[in-house]
Every structure is written in C-alpha cells, then in structure tokens.
Amino acid sequence: MGTLFRLLRAAFHTGLLFLLPWILGVAAGALFDIREVKETGSSFFFYFMLVSLPLLFLQMLSIGIRVRREVRMQKSLGKRGFAVFATALDRHARLLTGRGIGLVAGASIALMCALGVQWGQFAVMAVAGMGLLYLIVTAAAVASAFSILSFDERSPRKRGRIERRMTPALAGVGDPVEEEFTLGRVPIPPLYRLHISETMPERLGGETRFALERNATSEDVTVRAPLMQTLRGVYLFGPAEIAYEDVFGLTRIAVASLAQVDLRVLPQMRTIVYANKPRALSEGDGSLSRPHRFPTDDYFRLREYQRGDDARRVHWKRSIQLGAMHVRLPETVPYKPKDVLLVLDTYLPPGLKQAEGELADALDLLVEGWVSLARALSQQGERVTLAAAVTKDGKTFLRTLQAKRGEAARWRSFGADVTWQSNMSPEAVAREVHAMGTSAIWITSALAPVPSAGGPDNSIVWVDPRKPPVTRPNRSAWRRFFAYPFPAGSDDNRLDLRALFSSKAGPYLCAQMVEQHMQYGVNYTRSQAGVKLLFLRRQGAALTLGDA
C-alpha cells in the first residue's frame, strides 16, 4: 500500500503542471461562456505543446538520471526491489514545495476567475505566473541532474562529497552529542540553496535542518547542531534528505546521498540502595541476602601470648581474669564466590506491540537496574553473568556475557543493544537458564508470567512499566485556539494529521492494556511458592531495591 501511494504521489507531481491547463480548460468550458476564446483554442494548443513538451522531456530526463543514481547507490548498500525504485521516484518527482503548490493553486483560481468575468489582462498575468513556475521547475531539475558530480563519501577527493558524523559516536544517557556535516566543495547552482533535513528517531526528538549558501561550492564547510536528548539505544541516521531549494522557495530538488551514521547511547550505571534490611531478601542464602549483624558476647577464641604477637590483639580483661597474657585469634570464614545469572526479561506480548513506544522508558529502567545490579554483585566478589534475549538479523536468541570487573563498558554496550521482542517468551528463556545449572535472578516488568528461577536466589526483581500521569496545562478551548498549550518549539504543539487515520492505539488505551498484562503477571509471580518478589524503582540518582 505504501509503494502504491508513493507511485500515485509521484504521478501527481509529475503531471500536475502539464495536465493542469487542460483540466482548467475543461472546467471553464463547463462552467462559463467561453465562445469568445474558442476560436483561439487550436493556436493555444499548438503553442502550449511547443513550449511544454521540451520542458516535460527535460524534466523527465533529469528525474530519470537522479533516480538511476540513487537506485545504484541503494544497490551498493544491499537494498533491492521495486520498493526501492518507487521510493526514489517519489523523492525525486516531488519538485514543488508547499509554497509552489500554493502558487499553482492561486494561478489556477485567478485564471478561472479571469475566464468567468472575461478579464483578459488578469488571465495574462495568471498564465505568466504559471509559465514562470514551469521555467523555474525545469531549470532546477536540469541543474540538479547535470551539476552534481558525486555525493559519495567514500571518495574524499571527489568533488561534491558530504560527510556526516556524531560527536561522540559512543555516549552515555544524557551526554551532549552533536551532529556534524562536512561539505567539500558541493556544487550549488546560482539562485539556489542546499538544504539538509531529516526527521530524527522518535526517542531523540526533533529533526535535522541545515541551509547552506553558495560559499560551499568553493570551500569546505562544516555545520553542526546538538541533539535534543540522548536516550539509551542504538540509532541509525540517514540517508539525510539533501535538496536544492530556490531562493523563492517554490521548488525543492532532492539529491541522492549516502550521508549515514550511527549512534550508540549506553545506559547509566546507578548505585543500588536497599530499602530495608531483612535477614534475607531471598528465601535461601543467595546473592541478595543481607543478614543482620547480631550482637556478640565478650568471649573470643584465645590463646596465650607468644613472643612476636601483635600487642593490639591482647585481650586485657580476659588476661587479668586468667592471670596470663592472652590474645584474640582472628576468626576468618573462607568465602566462596557464587555463580549468579542475571536474566533480563525483554518479552513483549504480541497484544502490546502497539504500546512498544509507551514502554520504552520502562525498558530503560530495566536495563539500568540490570547492569547496576551486576556491578553491585561483582563488587561483592560474585561471578556474575548477564543474559537477555536479543534480536539480530531477524533471529531472536539468548545472549550471555560474563560481567568481569573492569569491563563495565561491555556490559553497557550489551544493554544498549536490548530491545523489546515478541519471539522468545520467558518460559523459553527459563528452559535455557535451567540447562545452565546456575542460580538466576530475573529482572522483569511482569508483562507476561515469569516462571520460578530456582536455586538459592530464586528472586524476581520487578520494575513497574506504567508511566506516571502527565498533568496537562488547564487552558480553555478559546485560549488554545490563539496560543500554544506548550512552550514554543515543543513537539507537543505539533498537529499530526496522519494520527487521525492511524490504526495505532492511543496512550490511554495503551495504558489500559499494559495495566491488564502487568496485574496478571504480578499476581502469577506472587502465587509461586518460594519466590521472593522485589521492587526496583528510581529514587534520586540511585536505584532502590526492596520488598514489593
């Protein structure tokens, strides 16, 4: 359906200018009395075809050259098929901007009015405006097809290169990141500007917008802008939409580009704070156990003082009672590290696929707790292994990584790769975990029932996936009509007409579906014998872990 829509839109923009006069002529003949100009119809047809057919040929030739170039570039990236051709045709056939379409509509209305009132001078002005637009569109198409030599960033010595980078390409959550474009002597025709634009991923917000003058033709130009926000994940940007736009803003000619770049944002590692200190947070003597420090009596293992003993270990009270010097023996208990498997539940039931965007923040908290708990346990001396179901190249599998001390960057990189998946359920993950034979701790949002992990730990850490309610400004309907409800520039002020016809569930319906799945998963977890359910939440700069 998307491919058909792109083809229809490309056909509309291609035939709009050249079929519009005939459409207007038929409409005027049906609505108005045009007997006075009917005898000039044959002359009009001849001169119009004499002018428009060469322009149409040049325009189609330039579009074909640019489409062929982009299809060839997409094939070098491994993208093939008719959808690639339809996308390229749609991008390069759309020559008119919103202002240009407005000019066409205005000229058409003026021409219809001139025919209706039989005002010849007004009709001449309307035809002149439309003819000027024809010339501008054709000139832009021809200039873009034959002046661009290459935009291939793999050959820095070629004229017309565009390089794109993120600084830095590896960042943490909340770190400042700048997007940078370097343009090396890009050919820009006279009376045109080079525009670079792209819509950012939804989680990052905003969009890329740069406009360059003709000075980029004779020298290298670098433009940069900071990202609005950096949230956990792996993002692929590009190819950016690079286009010529005339100084009047009537035409916009897309240019094929390979300006692609990726960005990896690592999750934060926070301090784990235990909300309470029961004798054990888990039923057995597991890795999350926190025993009380009981008071001891005044007796220790003692022996008589020998020459060379540390005088600080002399127990004077017992020495006076026994009549001889006695020292305390240090009591040491040999410590045996435990093998702990931290399993991250990334399963999203198919019924919640539409709520994946609403649950992005919950997954970020899950990953933060996952890597932070791994650091806390490794600092205690435990042998920790991270496990999570990940999707790569269309296949979902259980990936494990040993959390060695000093390699926290690898844990965080693993956390950046984690996304919601609907192919590997917690039961399937549990079967592979049991096959490993190690003690496991689940970290889950309980959107689906999580089986018992078994072993001495047998703990399930739960993260509430529900978002806090958003308080919207209380403004009347009339005030919202004249003023933005949110600060100027905020994405919340944007009117998305496509959302009116979208089948995607709204935030309220998504919250209800998440609530139903979560209640069922939590109740199922509580009903399991021997399972300790713990609650993980943010509290300032730390994560608090306590009884749910």
Which descriptors would you attach to this protein?
about 550 residues, alpha/beta, Immunoglobulin-like, 8-stranded mixed beta sheet, 4-stranded antiparallel beta sheet, 20 strands, about 35% helix, elongated
Describe what you observe in this structure:
This protein has 548 residues and is α/β, with parallel strands linked by helices. The protein folds into four domains: 2-147, no CATH class; 161-266, Immunoglobulin-like, CATH 2.60.40; 281-286 and 338-547, no CATH class; 294-336, no CATH class. It is 37% helix and 22% strand. It has helices at 2-31, 35-38, 41-76, 82-93, 98-117, 120-147, 316-322, 360-379, 408-417, 426-436, 477-482, 507-527, and strands at 161-167, 170-172, 178-184, 192-199, 207-212, 220-226, 233-237, 241-246, 252-255, 261-266, 271-274, 302-304, 326-328, 339-344, 383-392, 395-402, 439-444, 459-463, 532-539, 542-547. The strands form five sheets. Strands 11-20-19-18-17-14-15-16 form an eight-stranded mixed beta sheet, with helices on both faces. A four-stranded antiparallel beta sheet has the order 5-4-8-9. It has a three-stranded antiparallel beta sheet with strand order 1-3-6, with no helix packed on it. The longest helix has 36 residues, at 41-76. The radius of gyration is 35 Å and the shape is elongated. The two termini are 47 Å apart. Residues 149-157, 278-285 and 291-299 have low confidence and may be disordered.
